[in-house]
Amino acid sequence: MLIRAPATSANLGPGFDCAACALELWNEVEIGEGEGVTIEGEGAGELAEDRSNLAIRAYALLADPAGKRFHFVNRIPLERGLGSSAAAIALGLTAARPDAPLEVLLEAGLELEDHADTLAAALLGGVTL
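^ that's the sequence the OP posted. Answer follows.
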């Protein structure tokens, strides 16, 4: 299974912390049978390659990651205001329950992400309020 999540631009002018826009910059995760976490691109060698990885923690909110292999390709720069954390959470949640309603994913993700605007844009795409 291959899942993609976009970068986001939050804090849009007067929409500070209530509006966000998905951008054409994507992280992805491929999930298969097996064990382990690998990361290439942004954060390789820096992000956790175990169950403490933010995307794996998000996955674990909705499904058991045991017996799964996670391979991440990260294109969103870390700590640059482009929603890399929200994208990681969106990847994990969507991979765990790809058919879940947006409301279920958003509610679960708010345990890990304080900014619903950024997470909503990463889950849904487009512009969110």
